[in-house]
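Session log. Operator J.P. requested a structure for one protein chain; no other inputs attached. Running the standard single-chain path with C-alpha cell output.
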Amino acid sequence: MARPSQRRPDELRPVTLERAVARYAEGSCLVSFGNTKVLCTASLEERGPPWLRGSGRGWVTAEYAMLPRATHERTRREVTSGKPSGRTQEIQRLIGRSLRAVTNLPALGERQITIDCDVLQADGGTRTASITGAWVALRDCLAWMRARSIISVDPLRDHVAAVSCGIHQGVPVLDLDYAEDSAAETDANFVMTGSGGIVEVQGTAEGKPFSEAELLSMMSLARAGIADLVARQKAVVAG
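Structure written below.
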C-alpha cells in the first residue's frame, strides 16, 4: 500500500518548530507538519478568569482560528457570523485541556495565559500541530515570566504533543495529511505527555467500525510519533 505522500506507515511528515516569531508575544512558535502551518502565540494577563478570583490559582486557555485562505477555497472569517463554529470551540478546548494537563496552575498565581493558534495553511492535522507548537509557546512565556521574577518556579510538569493516526486502505498510518484524512476509514487524534501519559484520544470510524487491534496499532504509532515530537520540542527549547 502506497500512501499518497509515499511515506512509510510509521513516518511523520517533515516537522519544524520555530521559536520567537512574534515580536510582541511573551512566547511564540511557528509549527509545521508538512504543509500544515500554525502560528502559536502565548499572551500573559495579570488576572485570571473571574470564576477563579481569590483561589490563588491561574489558568491556561486557548483560542483557535483558521485564516480565510488556509484552505483551497476561501472560508469566511468566523467573526462575521458572530460566534465560533462548533468545530472551532471543540479544538480550542482540546488545546487548553492538553496544556493544563502538564501545568501546575497554582504556581502561576492568579494569572491567565492565552494561547492563540492561527492556522496559516491547512493540510490535515491542524489541531495536533497546534498542541505541539502551543507547548513551545507556553514554555517560552513561562521562561519570560521567570526571567522577570513574576513566578519563582517552573509550572510545567512535562511536555505534551499530539499526532493523528488513521486506517487508510486497511493499514494503520501515522500523521495523516488531507489526502489521507479525507479518504481514511478511521481517523483518530492522540494527545500524550513526554512521560507517556495519555491526555486524550479521539477516534471515529468514517466507514466500517475499527477493531481493538487496529486501535492498539494506532496507539503504538502515536506513541512513537509523539516521542519524536517531544524530542523535537526538547531540541528547539534547548537552542
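Operator note: The longest strand covers residues 36-45.
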